[in-house]
Task: structure prediction
Amino acid sequence: MTAGTAGPAAREASASWQALGTGVQVVVTDAMQLTAARGMLEADLADVDLACSRFRPDSEIVTLDRSLAGAGGAGDGPAAEPVEVSPLLAEAVAVALRAARLTDGDVDPTVGAAMNSVGYDRDFSLVQPEGPAVKLTVRAVPGWRQVEFDEQARLLRVPPGIRLDLGATAKAWAADRSAARIAAGLGCGALVSLGGDIAVSGQPPAGGWRVRVQDISGRPEDPPAGPSAVVAIHAGGLATSSTAARRWRRGGDVLHHILDPRTGLPAAPVWRTVSVAAASCTDANIASTAAIIRGRAAPAWLTGLGLPARLVDEAGRVRTVGGWPAETGSTS
Result:
């Protein structure tokens, strides 16, 4: 799993789990429903990928981008007419715009062109870890307020020059969506873990879902490397945003995938991971991502929101707010 969240810390007798791939797990309280839960999660993830991925040429969002470019909406000409999008993409866009509103633009879906400029222009598994220097220019992203979206009619208008990137919110939203569908459809408690994003729904196991959070990636069955904390989730979700997991080097610059919309560049290196618990995985992820971007102002901001959070700085020092459990192991 991605750095920060190791996943279910213990496999309780009342829960059965299965990994679907790197960083993807489904856990249910009824072992007889595990196969069905896995099938539902795989189908959900395939649907979300086909709607939202900016890395596959047949996805809806890439097709939309091409159609807008052809009509002038993503080029230099006049804005195109609004385009009707699918219910799934409409929900994903609504989530992304809500994140922008809640964070005053810290989490902004109009960073797509900036992501391409810093080298994250393909699936991360294909991004070369080392490469020649790139020209990094401070340039604010276009801004989420320029996107016009009628959620009821599912009509989306994207002005010239804007490339949407839903990556900051889509994974957490997908985890919430799948956990809720599995719990409702199968009548059992469900936990869905997608990288550092964990959502739970339905009746939890006795004592809640136990999740180990750590700064260094690791398998749930292995002992933690370095400081860690085990938290119990009864509802909602837990998300970890990290600048340590998705990094690459261009010339002498170390880059990562969390961009500050005010500069169009990777956020300043203050926190390498931030983990947050909230009423949903989506809300937790919005807060953890914004905290990375807000830097030193993040602890006070999270405290004001009343959100339990764990922040790890670039030197590995751990800071907790909002009643986050105490660490175990060394913090050096």
